[in-house]
Amino acid sequence: MSWKTRAERPHTDRVGGGQRADVEQALLIIDLQNAVFDGKQIPPAYAAERLLDNAGALLEAARRSRVPIIHVQHCAAAGEALEEGGPGWPIYAPVAPDAGEPVVRKRFASAFEATELHAVLQKLGVGSLIVTGIQSEHCVAATCRAALELGYSVCLAEDAHSTWPTGDRSAEEIVAEQNHTLNAGGVALRHTEDLIRALSDGRAADGGA
User: Fold this and answer.
1) Which one of 3.40.30.10, 3.30.420.40, 3.30.70.80, 3.40.50.850 gives the CATH number of domain 21-201?
2) pTM for the whole thing?
3) DSSP code of 121?
């Protein structure tokens, strides 16, 4: 693995009294595409309006603070809601990338599997990720775990990811379960409001208040 440990990287201080950050942080927005919100092929995701509001607020805060932003776009098979090139596939307009913001296209749950995401992050000097998006128990969870395995610090916006109900389990239960499981596995959890404040203050997202 070519990823350097924190001790091997130059130190940079973040202002605002937060935790000292040894590496650059970035915002990772996972699969916020038309079909997640428009209700045309599948029902909108659970608490879709809150998801969009919170992800959009993180996006704007990252842009204001000049924090790198990477958009992830799932390329599903023919007939699926996120079918590549289909109406549900484009990134949803309210959270669409600005010029210069990279888009990583994926075909598996993890945004790192068979993609250039790790290389993009290395080129940007990123070692700490703020994560928002869909689907809590699939692409969000798989990407968070893969990021940890590659040596990144990961902070999940606990109120800015979502899913759909499955069987007798509500989407709310699934989101709560994933927050608990991912946190137990090493992923930091923060509310969107706290993350926006940290971004605005220039503090590491997984740092103190």
Assistant:
1) 3.40.50.850
2) 0.88
3) H
